[in-house]
Here is the input.
Amino acid sequence: MLESILFRDQTDADTDAVRTLVTAAYHGLPHASGTEPFIMDALWRSGAAAVALVAQDASGLVGQAAFSAVHIFGPDGAGTGWFVLGPLSVRPDRQHQGIGSALIRHGLARLRTRGAAGCLVVGDPGYYGRTGFRVVGGLHVPGIPDRYVQALPFAGLPPTGIIELHEAFSAAE
Here is the structure.
């Protein structure tokens, strides 16, 4: 089924469709804050989405993923070269078909070619573990239980410290 999907960079022409997709993907989920479409809009408008991908088939957009730079403040100073995945969205009628995992793999490949040190994600370890993310001690996102903070280093060990997300992650509308 993934053969019929085109994975490509998001463009300005996709903005409304991405907002609709993100809203639908997170609607009614117990872990959703309702701000996910606003976060994506803010990441896109600010240029903070260093990698923004969409998945498209004949019916339109079926998925999207954004990756933005983070700063990690730890005992050895600020960690740079790290990115965070989010939001990741798949249209409800297309979930559980591998689209989200494929978007993650495409995005991670892009980050590697840019020389990134690694990628972080906040979410379900059971889901994100399938693409290589692992919960590691010593990484913290204020207000998020550490059991959901995961890292995928591209070389070496992940840093430790407090993760500072882009201000877009505070968008409320």
Remarks:
- The chain has one domain: 2-170.
- Strands lie at 6-9, 49-57, 60-74, 77-90, 118-122, 134-135, 139-140, 149-153, 161-164.
- The CA atoms of residues 83 and 119 lie 5 Å apart.
- The chain has a mean pLDDT of 93.
